[in-house]
Specification:
With 363 residues, the protein is α/β, with parallel strands linked by helices. The chain has two domains: 47-210, Murein tetrapeptidase LD-carboxypeptidase, N-terminal domain (Rossmann fold); 212-360, Glucose Oxidase, domain 1 (3-Layer(bba) Sandwich), CATH 3.50.30.60. It is 26% helix and 21% strand. The protein has ten helices and 16 strands. An eight-stranded mixed β-sheet has the order 7-15-14-9-10-11-12-8. Helix 8 (235-240) links the parallel strand 9 (225-234) and strand 10 (254-261). Helix 9 (265-277) runs parallel beside helix 10 (298-309).
Length: 363
């Protein structure tokens, strides 16, 4: 999963002045009083018509939040400037640059991080929530969110990866919305690789241009072709989430995305074995593997994937090009798609976002 020295600069920074621009308004209810939510286990996304947000346009307001680890102010300034160069108004969360008083690996208290997320989602003037970084912390705040209230709000776009995997799952299962597994506001790839930033920009503003996903490294690990709804994210987070209120019992019928960072092959083996033993991979339609940055030479990692995933008998793409690598694709989650392992492509049935908020019946 996203280690504390990846996804942004290394940790260890003291709080600094907030970036330019007004923060989101303070909550009407003190963050500390947000109750813990007891959520039922979820097997499938929320019932009823499948909704999707509209695509972004110039002048939209986006919230920049830190649901997990603390933020490097200099990288935050660079990420904010890049988002603004796209014609977006960036609204920093009230606790964006906080640091937990006792646990320095967290961006402020659990209640404050949950309040920032909830407040941004309920603000009708906010079109998207962009996470500033991963690290660790979403699992501590996700049950503090009032998902019933969020379900009644208009659809929004969520962008993030790594630790944000847990939020992607919650938004899919609780709200029935597609999300973007893509680079975050202070991520190295977002700031340093123009292709990564441009693919996210086009996915947000011109989603019809990013329906076919592939990379120079994509190739069949297990050949074949499959159709399903995209889901998944960081492998370690998916395994750690098993048995929690925001985890689905099975990825049956999905095209499952898996990637990770700084995990040796035996640890990847353990993660995949947990997913297999828990039944999470029962009935999966196909699997798209992303980057394995910092996981050692690709040969042993590939052998682990073959050993654990090939017996499922479904198509598997190796290195589709999303995740923690120095260059990364943005991959929509919660949308119908076709995986062609032989061609090394993942093709969305339709653009992830539209020109207006629409209702759709699931495929």
């Amino acid at each position: 999963m996203d280690q504390l020295t990846t996804g942004s600069a290394a940790d260890g920074h003291d709080p600094a002045p907030r970036p330019a621009g007004p923060p989101l308004p303070a909550p009407s209810v003190p963050a500390a009083s947000l109750p813990a939510r007891s959520l039922p286990a979820a097997d499938l996304p929320v019932a009823g018509p499948r909704r999707r947000p509209r695509r972004l346009t110039t002048g939209d307001r986006v919230a920049l939040l830190a649901p997990s680890g603390p933020i490097d102010p200099q990288r935050l300034a660079a990420g904010t400037a890049l988002l603004r160069s796209w014609g977006l108004h960036v609204m920093p969360g009230a606790h964006l640059l906080d640091r937990h008083p006792a646990h320095g690996y967290l961006a402020g208290t659990d209640a404050d991080r949950a309040a920032d997320f909830q407040r941004a989602w309920l603000d009708p003037g906010i079109s998207a929530v962009v996470c500033a970084r991963g690290g660790y912390g979403v699992q501590r705040m996700v049950d503090l969110v009032d998902w019933d209230a969020l379900r009644a709000a208009p659809p929004k776009i969520l962008v993030g990866f790594s630790d944000i995997t847990v939020l992607h799952e919650a938004v899919d299962l609780r709200l029935g919305l597609p999300t973007l597994y893509g680079p975050m506001g202070t991520a190295a790839a977002f700031l340093d690789d123009p292709a990564t930033a441009d693919h996210l920009r086009r996915t947000l503003f011109e989603p019809a241009t990013t329906r076919v996903l592939t990379s120079a490294t994509a190739e069949p690990l297990v050949p074949g072709r499959a159709a399903g709804t995209t889901a998944g994210g960081c492998a370690a987070l998916l395994a750690t989430d098993r048995g929690t209120p925001t985890a689905r019992r099975s990825f049956a019928g999905t095209i499952l995305l898996l990637e990770d960072v700084n995990e040796q092959p035996y640890r990847l083996d353990r993660t995949l074995t947990q997913l297999l033993r828990s039944g999470a991979l029962d009935g999966v339609a196909g699997i798209a593997l992303g980057s394995w940055e910092g996981c050692g030479p690709p040969g042993p990692v590939r052998e682990v994937m073959l050993d654990r995933l090939a017996p499922l008998g479904v198509p598997v793409i190796w290195e589709l090009g999303f995740g923690h690598g120095p260059s990364s694709l943005t991959v929509p989650l919660g949308v119908p798609a076709v995986l062609d392992a032989d061609a090394g492509t993942l093709t969305l049935d339709e653009p992830v976002f539209g020109d207006a908020v629409v209702d759709e019946t699931p495929a």
